[in-house]
Amino acid sequence: MSHMGTRAQHQVALREYVAEVLKHAIYEKGEVLNVVVAEAPDLPGCFTQGSSFEEARENLIDAVEVWIMSALQCGEDLPVVNECRLAISEIPYRTRGVRLSKLSPLLRGIVTGRRTSG
């Protein structure tokens, strides 16, 4: 029996899942405004912008994390990206197995309900 064309999915931590999503990221110069638009096509509706490529990439990382947390809070299944599935622990709703110290400040604020400036 041949398994060609069939690749096994494996579970990964949040950091690796985000890195896999970013491998397919699309960056385009804005048509009207002087911005760089960044999109994560693996996550429908996940896009942002920045004044430079670097800023757009940093903003996209935050947008990807927020998209993931929102999907998890709504009970949605996350898409498999490059045969990677986010490993999720079944523990209390507020953190879903992610240590808050490992999250970006923006995402940590959303998860805890405490927004931070900067």
Short description:
By secondary structure, the protein is α+β, with helices and mostly antiparallel strands. It has three helices and five strands, in the order βαβββαβα.
Task: Give a structural overview.
With 118 residues, this protein is of the alpha+beta class. It has one domain: Double Stranded RNA Binding Domain. The chain is 32% helix and 15% strand. The protein contains three helices and five strands, in the order E-H-E-E-E-H-E-H. Strands 2-3-4 form a three-stranded antiparallel β-sheet, with helices on one face. It has a two-stranded parallel ribbon with strand order 1-5. The longest helix has 21 residues, at 53-73. The protein starts with 9 loop residues before the first strand and ends in a 6-residue tail after the last helix.
Q: Which consecutive residue ranges, at least 5 long each, have pLDDT under 50?
A: none
Q: How many helical stretches?
A: 3
Strand content: 15-25%
SS-based structural class? alpha+beta
Distance between the amino and carboxyl termini: 56 Å
Given this structure, which CATH class is correct?
A: Alpha Beta
Biggest sheet, spatial arrangement of strands: 2-3-4
* Number of domain modules: 1
Radius of gyration: 16 Å
Major pleated sheet: 3 strands, antiparallel
Number of strands: 5
Enter the CATH topology name. Answer: Double Stranded RNA Binding Domain
Give me the CATH architecture, please.
2-Layer Sandwich
Helix proportion: 25-40%
**Shape field:** elongated
Order of helices and strands: EHEEEHEH
Mean of residue pLDDT?
81
